[in-house]
Design brief:
756 residues, alpha+beta, ten-stranded mixed β-sheet, globular
């Protein structure tokens, strides 16, 4: 994209260089920075540009840009905000996703930046901020909607505003009432209480009474009577009238339009495919509620501005107030956008986009602008941490048919690829004894024994009242916690179980099960003595890799082999593993390039082999999803916190290298029993279009017994997960008691034991 300095507003210089939120208000059609003390405060007469910068674990910075339009903002100011958003994206290298946010119809992602809510105030810069200060003690009535984030809208203070479906907050001088419509959900009521807390803290200095009013509970208590008295006395509520928010948008066939000289021209095609879009053009994908503007990488800034204006005109002319405009740059399309197409190729090379970012940075640098942070940061080289105590007690069973056989301590870290295993690890947690029960599936294990292993492990978890975390682990995809528990782990070829033996006999497959006196080659890997593995591979030269060390034995002869790309630490691990695999034999060290003839003879002769380290799926930035089983949908919870985990629900924490299924105490029993299956379905459906491995580790964690390797993704308060009651009752206790969770003593004693 061609960029000139006259296109870039000085207010955006230096923006997006570090993680966080930055906000500008449009004043006289120019962006003016908003002081951090005013973040979250929006005026109905204004337009704003909001930049969210996220630091990814890869070291890169990701940007989302939103422009928010108050209900009373002028069309010219709204247009200026839209154009300035395109300019800001250009200043950041042309890769941000851009969202149009209209007051009352904001995206959940936008609202998540300002939890628990935004409550726009009347007025704006054009009117000199003439919001009415003298009405500070005026009574306000708000309606709240949303299960994960809350949309708050002020409505007239009248009985006619109330209905059975909504949740209403009545803010008076001395008390805040929350009225829960009889048709509202527990989770919605709990989220609305966060708004009550916000109003109490923001407008009452944290000093006022809180009352909860249940729809249908007539004059049973004083607070209910007081509430209805403010409306002139109790009377039956009217049926809810259909508002703009409730109108169901007609199903809208997805239409692809090419932007030609400011006009949206339909693209004729039998089906939507990626090849329909040219990198030199801009396109509009009209999906009804969502209108996407796709901007080719080789388009000019004025092309992108024209496409944005065309999209604005499209929804303005068809009276679609709820439609959201989302602008995307080629190569950085969102999952939702890509899912609209019947076919979409794998991700394009990032090298091209890095090049465009570099060109922008170079151009700005020539103009004397500080470009620090514009280029991709160096990846952070960090060893993953296990977040689990490694001094606990380990028991391991091999699955044999429908039974499990306890292994002696000397054999419990030696697994066969044709078998399945169950392990139980009890260890000291932060404030209680914790337990992890896992199932390990060998690559060559048979289906019957996999099913049996799952059933046996699940019964163990059930017998512990679901207080143990549970894991599915597949050979070759083991998580860091698994390796840390076993410390020295060995995978052997073949299997010992009846299921495996019967399978190879039926198929007339030669039994290649490891024998101590046979020829065997092991690849040694790991990060240290507390995390090292020896994996048996085919005993041929092509199994070697210059980035690893190996152990080769045949009869009484033992070789160690060090690849040219290995370190002294790698070579030390070989000696440690040798003490386990062949403790009583002297080895013959071999260096890559100077091997003996006998070494090559054992491997059946020389051949080419790899040199690049075997890559594992890196841990990505975690994402939290709420699961709705009735329709098979998952909904992402943006900028999540512990408070987003509702006790009635099941959530998936997706870390890319592994996933966690969190199960609330009050989730349906059927869902508790199917939690790990739910995790498997998440991987199978691949909602994020990431080509997720079906063999990624899956953990199930139960509310109240979350292990540290789960809680470290949050700012965690263990008292919150040991409270009693449903989500609403818990939150009400916190709000009424000044933020202190009320702990369920019986549950606490069950989890922690009696102090006596």
């Amino acid at each position: 994209m061609a960029v000139s300095m006259r296109d870039l507003d000085p207010a955006f210089q230096g923006a997006g260089q570090k993680a966080g939120t930055e906000i500008w208000r449009i004043e006289n059609f120019r962006p003016v920075p908003v002081p951090k003390s005013s973040y979250g405060k929006f005026f109905t007469g204004d337009s704003y540009v909001i930049l969210k910068t996220i630091a990814l674990k890869s070291g890169a910075l990701r940007h989302d840009i939103h422009y928010w339009l108050g209900k009373d903002t002028t069309q010219d100011e709204a247009g200026a905000a839209a154009v300035k958003t395109v300019e800001l994206d250009a200043a950041l290298g042309g890769r941000a996703v851009q969202y149009r946010e209209v007051q009352g119809h904001e995206t959940e992602k936008f609202l998540s930046y300002f939890k628990p809510c935004i409550i726009p105030q009347e007025g704006g810069v054009a009117s000199g901020f003439k919001h009415v200060e003298e009405e500070e003690n005026k009574t306000h009535l708000f309606v709240c909607r949303g299960k994960h984030v809350v949309h708050v809208k002020e409505v007239p203070f009248a009985r006619s505003s109330l209905n059975h479906d909504g949740i209403f907050i009545l803010d008076t001088k001395s008390k805040i009432f929350q009225f829960n419509g009889s048709n509202s959900s527990i989770q919605e009521r709990a989220k609305a209480l966060e708004v009550v807390q916000y109003i109490k803290d923001t407008y009452h200095d944290g000093k006022c009474e809180i009352a909860s009013i249940e729809d249908g509970k007539l004059m049973a208590d004083a607070e209910t009577g007081e509430f209805w008295g403010l409306f002139g006395g109790f009377a039956p509520l009217p049926r809810k009238t259909v508002s703009d928010e409730d109108k169901i948008v007609d199903s809208h066939p997805n239409k692809l339009l090419s932007v030609e000289k400011g006009q949206a021209v339909p693209v004729e095609a039998d089906s939507l495919t990626r090849v329909l879009m040219d990198t030199n053009k801009c396109y509009i994908l009209d999906c009804g509620l969502e209108v996407f503007v796709w901007m080719g990488r080789n388009t000019f800034l004025h092309d992108r501005k024209n496409a944005s204006e065309t999209a604005e005109e499209l929804i303005r002319g068809s009276d679609r107030p709820k439609s959201q405009i989302i602008r995307l740059i080629e190569g950085f399309e969102t999952v939702i956008f890509r899912s609209k197409f019947e076919s979409w190729p794998q991700a394009t090379s990032v090298a091209v986009t890095e090049d465009s970012r570099g060109k922008v940075a170079a151009l700005l640098q020539c103009q004397g602008v500080n470009v620090k942070g514009l280029l991709k940061a160096a990846p952070v080289k960090e060893e993953p941490q296990p977040y689990i105590d490694c001094t606990g007690n380990l028991q391991v069973w091999r699955v044999n048919g429908q039974e499990k056989v306890l292994l002696p301590t000397s054999d419990q870290s030696k697994f066969y690829s044709g078998d399945c295993y169950i392990f139980q690890y009890s260890y000291p947690g932060e404030d209680k004894e914790e337990c992890l029960i896992g199932t390990w599936f060998g690559k060559q294990s048979v289906e019957e024994e996999r099913v049996s292993a799952v059933s046996l492990a699940s019964k163990m978890v059930e017998s512990m009242k679901f207080l143990a975390a549970q894991a599915y682990v597949h050979e070759g995809s083991e998580p860091i916690q698994f390796f840390s528990i076993f410390q020295s782990f060995i995978v052997l070829k073949g299997g010992l179980s009846d299921g495996y033996k019967n399978y190879i006999a039926e198929k007339e497959i030669p039994d290649g099960t490891y024998t101590e006196d046979g020829v065997a080659l092991f690849r040694v890997q790991g990060s240290g003595p507390d995390n090292m593995q020896a994996i048996q591979v085919d005993a041929v030269a092509s199994s070697l890799n210059s980035s690893y060390c190996y152990i080769l034995h045949g009869g009484s002869t033992v070789f160690t082999w060090a690849g040219n790309l290995t370190s002294p630490d790698d070579q030390e691990l070989v000696e440690r593993q040798l003490d386990i695999i062949k403790p009583n034999l002297q080895s013959k060290p071999q260096k890559e390039g100077s091997e003996s003839e006998q070494f090559w003879e054992l491997l059946g002769g020389k051949s080419e082999y790899a040199s690049q380290k075997i890559s594992r799926e890196p841990e990505g930035n975690p994402q939290l999803f709420s699961c709705t089983f009735s329709n098979g949908m998952v909904v992402e919870i943006y900028n999540f916190t512990q408070d987003d985990l509702m006790t009635e629900d099941i959530f998936i924490l997706h870390c890319h290298s592994d996933i966690f299924v969190w199960v609330g105490q009050q989730a349906h029993t059927k869902n508790k029993l199917q939690a790990l299956t739910i995790g498997e379905k998440f991987l199978e459906q691949d909602f994020l279009l990431e080509n997720l491995s079906r063999e990624a580790p899956i953990y199930m964690v139960m509310e109240g017994s979350e292990p540290t390797f789960f809680t470290h993704f949050f700012t965690w308060d263990s008292a919150k997960s040991t409270m009693h009651g449903n989500s609403f009752q818990r939150k009400l206790n916190i709000v009424k008691n000044g933020g202190a969770p009320i702990i369920d003593i019986d549950y606490f004693l069950l989890m922690h034991g009696s102090p006596g």
